[in-house]
Write a structure and sequence with these properties.
The complex is a heterodimer of chains A (152) and B (707). Chain A is an alpha+beta fold. Chain A has 5 helices and 5 strands; from the N terminus they run ββαβββαααα. Chain A starts with a strand and ends with a helix. Chain B is α+β, with helices and mostly antiparallel strands and 707 residues long. The longest helix of chain B has 28 residues. Chain B folds into 3 domains: 204 residues, Aldehyde oxidase/xanthine dehydrogenase, molybdopterin binding domain (Aldehyde Oxidoreductase, domain 4); 148 residues, Aldehyde oxidase/xanthine dehydrogenase, molybdopterin binding domain (Aldehyde Oxidoreductase, domain 4), CATH 3.30.365; 306 residues, Aldehyde oxidase/xanthine dehydrogenase, molybdopterin binding domain (Aldehyde Oxidoreductase, domain 4). At the A-B interface, helix 1, helix 2, helix 3, helix 4 and helix 5 of A face helix 4, helix 6 and helix 15 of B. The complex binds FE2/S2 (inorganic) cluster (2 copies). One FE2/S2 (inorganic) cluster sits at the interface of chains A and B.
C-alpha cells in the first residue's frame, strides 16, 4: 500500500492506506479521530464535514490520494480548548439531541462564518441546508449560528 | 409531601454497600415496586434501575440507567435523583449505567416512558439516600433526626453542619430507612431549571461517545451483504474478488447473509461490494401497488368484531342529512437514524461481550444467549450513546448479526451498516390507510365510522382515544395485511399517521358544516368530559387545556394577511399536544413558516431540553409528512440513500414556539407526542392557503407546488 503524508490539525501524519480510501475512514479508522462522522458516504448528509484549507468539504467523498499537502482540520482540531465561537454558541444553546450530526454542523458553520461574519437568516439557512439533522434540531442550530456570528 | 415505603416483602428495595476507597453505593432494585406507591404503573417493559454514589469529597455520581438516544434522559433522570437527594447539580457526575441483570431489571428506551415509569422510583432513590445521611448525622450528634435539615449536600442541626461526603463512610453502616418523604413539587430547585446536556462538551469536541466510535485492540471490521429483496434467500456466492481487496482477511456466510471481514471499515465495505451473490425466491416478492389495492379493499370490509361500536352507527348514517367520507394513505418509512446501525462483539469460548447503541439491552442479551447457546450470564451488553433511535434500535438484529459473526471468526469485530444497508434492511413504519366517515345531522356529527388497514401493523386505530366518548354513534374497525416485509415501531407508532388523517378529517368536516375547526373539537371534548359515551382512555379536560393554549398563543382566528393557520391536536404517550401551523403562500407556493405548539406533559423536568424535544418532534413530523416516501417493487426497497430519500433540512424547517401547560402532575412522555399532530396542522393550513386538501403522504407528491 502506498504511504500518504497528510496534514491533519496542524500535524503531519503518515498513513498506509489504499489510494481510494476516503479521508473519512483514514481519520476514523487509521488516525483514531472519530469526531468526524459517517452518515451516508455519498456527500448527501454533511455528517463527515471537515475543513480543507478552511473550506468545508465532505470527507466521505474525498479520496486520500487527492489531498496532497492541503491542510485538514477536524472537529478535534477546530479549537484547542473546545471554545471556538461556534462551539461556544453550540454550548450556550445546548443544541444537540443525539448529537451525531453536530460535529459536521459545527464544521460547516465555522467555515461559513469565516467567510460571512454578518449573515442574514436566509444566508444561514442556505449555508446549513446541506447538513441533515435527523433529530431536527434546526431551530437551535440556526440560533447558535447566529450567536456564533456575533462572537466571531 | 408524600411518604413512601422503601421496603417490601422479603426483597429489599435499596441496598447499601461499601465501595473500595470509601463512599457509599445505593443500589436500587427497581424490580420490586412498593405496593403502596401511588406510581409508577406496573408495566414491565418500562421499569428501570440505577446507582448513586457519594464520594467522601462530596461528589455524587448518579448512574443513568436508561439508554440515551437523544431524548436527554442521561441528564433528566439524574436531575430527579439529585433533587430529592438535595445536592448541588454542579457536584453531580453522571454515568451511563451498564446492563446488569443482577441488580437491575429493565433498561429500555421506548414509548416515551423512561421518565414516566421511573419518576417515583428515582425520587425515592434520592430521598432515601438523603434520609440515610440525616440518620447518620443524628447518631453522630446524638440528636433527633427530625430536627435535621439538608441543603445542597450539607446536613444541618442548629449550628452544626456536616457534608454528605463526610458522612458517607459512616452512612454505609446505617440501616436503610423504611420510610422516606418526598418533596412537595413546589419546592423543587433542580427540576424545572434548564440544565445542560451532561455529554455536551464531549459532543462539541468530537469525543468518542457513539457506538460507531468504539474500538478495541485487535478489532476487525465487518460489512454484511443481506438479501436484496424481501422474499429472497441466498443461493450461491463467489467471493474471489472480495478476498482480493486489500485489507480483507475473511469472508463468512451466516444464515442468508455474507460478512466480509477486514482491517478497516472501508476495506470491509469495498469487499462487500465486490461479492457476487445469487439470490433465489423463497417467498412472495411484494409490490407497493399490490399493498395499496389490498389495503383499500380492506377499508370496505367490515371487521368481524369491531374494536368499538357505540350507539347505532348504521342508523346514524341512514338518517344523516349528509355523509362525509375521506380516505387517507401513508407509505412505509425507514427510520434513518443519523448513525447507521453498528455493533461490536467479542465472542470467546467462555463469554460473549457486546457493546454498542441499543434501546433494548436486556432483551437483546437473552436473544444473543439463545442464538449462541450460552447462558445469559455469559453474555454482557454495554450501551454507548446512540446517534438516534426512533424505534429502530429496539430490534437488536444488528447485535445478533455481529454476535454470530464474532462467534464464527472468534475475533473482536465491529459490524458497520452502510447507509444503503441501513435503509434497505429496515424495520419499517407500516404502510397504512384510513377511511373516515361522518354522519352529519342538524349541523352536528351524529355518527362516526373509522376503518383502518395496515401492513404488518396490528391495530392501526386507537379506538378509546379522541373522539371516543364525544360522539353518540361511534364505530372503529381495523385490518392487518400480512407481509414478509419487516415492520416495527417508528417514533409515535401508528399515531404518527393516524393523527394526521384524523385531524385532517375533522378540519374538513368543520369546513363542510361551516363550523370553526377548534370549536368543533372543543364541542366533542365537552361531551366526552361531561357525559362520555362509553369508556375513554384520555382526559378531555387536559386536551381542552392545550387546545385553548395553542389557539391563544397562535392567535387562532386572527391570522395576519398572507398567513394561513391550520389546527391539530393529539394525545399520545400520556401527553396532550395542540399545534397551529402558520403557512405562507407567496409566489413559490405554500411554505410552513412556523408551528405554535402547546404541551401538557405534567411537570417539565428540564425546560430547555424539553423544548428541544418538542421542536424536534414537530419538525420531524412536518418533514415526514411532506417528504416521507418509501416503496417496494418485487420486494426491493426503491430508495437506499439520501439522494433518493428526502429528509427535512434547514431551509424547510419551520420555527417552532413551544408553550407548556403549568402543571404539578407527574411527568409524562415527551420524546414522541409532539410529532403526531404536526402533519395534520400543516395539511389543514395548506388547505386553507390553497383550497387543496391533502390525503396522501408525502404531501410533496400531491398536485401543489410547494415553496
Ligand atoms: S457521510 Fe459524507 S456527506 Fe454523508
Ligand atoms: S442531533 Fe441527532 S442527528 Fe442531529
Amino acid at each position: 500500500m502506498p504511504v500518504y503524508s497528510i496534514n491533519v490539525n496542524g500535524k503531519s501524519r503518515q498513513v498506509d492506506v489504499d489510494a481510494d480510501t476516503p479521508l473519512l475512514w483514514v481519520l476514523r479508522d487509521t488516525l483514531d479521530l472519530v469526531g468526524t462522522k459517517f452518515g451516508c458516504g455519498i456527500a448527501q448528509c454533511g455528517a463527515c464535514t471537515v475543513h480543507l484549507n478552511g473550506n468545508a468539504v465532505r470527507s466521505c467523498s474525498l479520496p486520500v490520494s487527492t489531498i496532497g499537502d492541503n491542510e485538514i482540520t477536524t472537529i478535534e482540531g477546530l479549537s484547542e480548548n473546545g471554545d471556538h465561537p461556534v462551539q461556544s454558541a453550540w454550548r450556550e444553546h445546548d443544541v444537540p439531541q443525539c448529537g451525531y450530526c453536530q460535529a459536521g454542523q459545527m464544521m460547516n458553520a465555522a467555515a461559513f462564518l469565516s467567510r460571512n461574519s454578518n449573515p442574514s437568516d436566509e444566508d444561514i439557512e442556505n449555508a446549513m441546508h446541506g447538513n441533515i439533522c435527523r433529530c431536527a434540531t434546526y431551530n437551535k442550530i440556526k440560533a447558535a449560528v447566529k450567536t456564533a456570528a456575533t462572537n466571531m | 409531601m408524600t411518604v413512601i415505603k422503601t421496603k417490601i416483602n422479603r426483597r429489599s428495595f435499596l441496598k447499601t454497600s461499601a465501595l473500595a476507597g470509601g463512599g457509599i453505593v445505593i443500589g436500587f432494585n427497581w424490580g420490586c415496586t412498593p405496593a403502596d406507591m401511588a406510581r409508577p404503573e406496573a408495566s414491565a417493559w418500562y421499569e428501570v434501575n440505577a446507582f448513586l454514589t457519594i464520594a467522601d469529597n462530596g461528589e455524587v455520581t448518579i448512574m443513568s440507567p436508561n439508554p440515551e438516544i437523544g431524548q436527554n434522559i442521561k441528564t433528566s433522570m439524574p436531575m430527579i435523583v439529585a433533587e430529592e437527594l438535595d445536592v448541588n447539580w454542579e457536584d453531580v457526575i453522571v454515568k451511563q449505567a451498564p446492563l446488569n441483570t443482577e441488580s437491575f431489571t429493565r433498561q429500555v428506551a421506548g414509548g416515551s416512558q423512561s421518565i414516566r415509569s421511573s419518576w417515583t422510583i428515582l425520587r425515592t432513590a434520592g430521598a432515601t439516600a438523603r434520609k440515610l445521611l440525616i440518620n447518620t448525622a443524628a447518631k453522630e450528634w446524638q440528636v433527633d433526626p427530625s430536627g435535621i435539615t439538608t441543603e445542597n449536600g450539607v446536613v444541618k442541626y442548629g449550628k452544626m453542619t456536616m457534608t454528605y461526603g463526610e458522612l458517607a463512610a459512616k452512612a454505609v453502616m446505617e440501616e436503610i430507612p423504611e420510610e422516606v418523604e418526598l418533596k412537595d413539587p413546589k419546592d423543587f430547585k433542580i427540576i424545572g431549571q434548564a440544565k445542560k446536556n451532561v455529554d455536551l462538551d464531549g459532543i462539541i469536541t468530537g469525543e468518542p461517545l457513539f457506538g460507531l466510535d468504539f474500538k478495541r485492540e485487535g478489532m476487525v471490521y465487518a460489512a454484511a451483504m443481506r438479501p436484496p429483496a424481501f422474499g429472497t434467500k441466498l443461493k450461491s456466492f463467489d467471493d474471489s474478488d472480495a478476498r482480493a481487496v486489500n485489507g480483507v482477511s475473511d469472508v463468512v456466510q451466516f444464515g442468508n447473509k455474507i460478512a466480509v471481514i477486514a482491517n478497516s471499515t472501508w476495506a470491509a465495505m469495498k469487499g462487500k461490494n465486490a461479492l457476487k451473490a445469487e439470490w433465489e425466491r423463497d417467498g412472495k416478492l411484494e409490490n407497493t401497488t399490490d399493498h395499496d389495492r389490498q389495503l383499500l379493499r380492506m377499508l370496505d370490509t367490515p371487521e368481524k368484531e369491531p374494536r368499538r361500536n357505540d350507539g347505532n352507527v348504521r342508523r346514524a348514517f341512514a338518517n344523516a342529512d349528509k355523509v362525509i367520507e375521506r380516505v387517507y394513505e401513508a407509505p412505509f418509512l425507514p427510520h434513518n437514524t443519523m448513525e447507521p446501525m453498528n455493533f461490536f462483539a467479542d465472542v470467546t469460548d467462555t463469554k460473549a461481550e457486546l457493546i454498542g447503541p441499543i434501546q433494548t439491552p436486556q432483551w437483546t442479551q437473552g436473544r444473543v444467549a439463545q442464538l449462541l447457546g450460552r447462558e445469559a450470564a455469559d453474555v454482557t451488553i454495554d450501551m454507548t450513546r446512540m446517534g438516534g433511535g426512533f424505534g429502530r434500535r429496539l430490534y437488536g438484529d444488528f447485535a445478533l448479526e455481529v454476535a454470530e459473526i464474532s462467534d464464527k471468526i472468534r475475533k473482536p469485530v465491529k459490524l458497520v451498516f452502510s447507509r444503503e444497508d441501513d435503509m434497505t434492511a429496515g424495520t419499517y413504519r407500516p404502510a397504512s390507510k384510513y377511511k373516515f366517515r361522518a354522519a352529519i345531522k342538524n349541523g352536528k356529527i351524529d355518527g362516526y365510522h373509522l376503518t383502518g388497514s395496515g401492513v404488518n401493523s396490528g391495530n392501526v386505530t386507537r379506538q378509546n382515544w379522541f373522539p371516543a366518548g364525544g360522539i353518540e354513534n361511534y364505530k372503529v374497525e381495523t385490518h392487518n395485511l400480512r407481509s414478509n416485509i419487516t415492520t416495527g415501531a417508528w417514533r409515535a407508532p401508528i399515531t404518527n399517521f393516524l393523527a394526521i388523517a384524523e385531524q385532517s378529517f375533522f378540519d374538513e368536516v368543520a369546513a363542510e358544516i361551516g363550523m370553526d375547526a377548534v370549536q368543533l373539537r372543543l364541542d366533542i371534548l365537552e361531551r366526552a368530559k361531561n357525559n362520555p359515551v362509553g369508556e375513554i382512555d384520555y382526559e378531555p379536560e387536559k386536551m381542552i387545556g392545550v387546545i385553548k393554549l395553542a389557539a391563544e398563543k397562535a392567535g387562532w382566528g386572527n391570522a395576519p394577511s398572507g398567513i394561513s393557520h391550520g389546527f391539530s391536536c393529539y394525545y399520545s404517550h400520556n401527553t396532550y399536544v395542540a399545534e397551529v401551523a402558520h403557512v405562507t403562500n407567496a409566489s413559490g407556493g405554500p411554505k410552513v413558516a412556523r408551528v405554535t405548539c402547546a404541551v401538557d406533559c405534567g411537570i417539565v423536568i428540564n425546560p430547555d431540553a424539553a423544548i428541544n424535544q418538542v421542536q424536534g418532534g414537530v419538525v420531524d413530523g412536518v418533514g415526514h409528512a411532506m417528504y416521507g416516501d418509501f416503496s417496494f417493487v418485487n420486494g426491493t426497497p426503491q430508495a437506499s440513500n439520501f439522494d433518493k430519500y428526502r429528509l427535512i433540512r434547514a431551509k424547510e424547517a419551520p420555527e417552532v414556539d413551544v408553550h407548556f401547560v403549568e402543571s404539578l402532575n407527574d411527568p409524562t412522555g415527551l420524546g414522541e407526542p409532539s410529532l403526531p399532530p404536526a402533519g395534520g396542522a400543516v395539511a389543514n393550513a395548506i388547505a386553507k392557503a390553497t383550497g387543496n386538501r391533502l390525503y396522501k403522504i408525502p404531501f410533496i407528491k400531491e398536485e401543489i407546488v410547494f415553496g
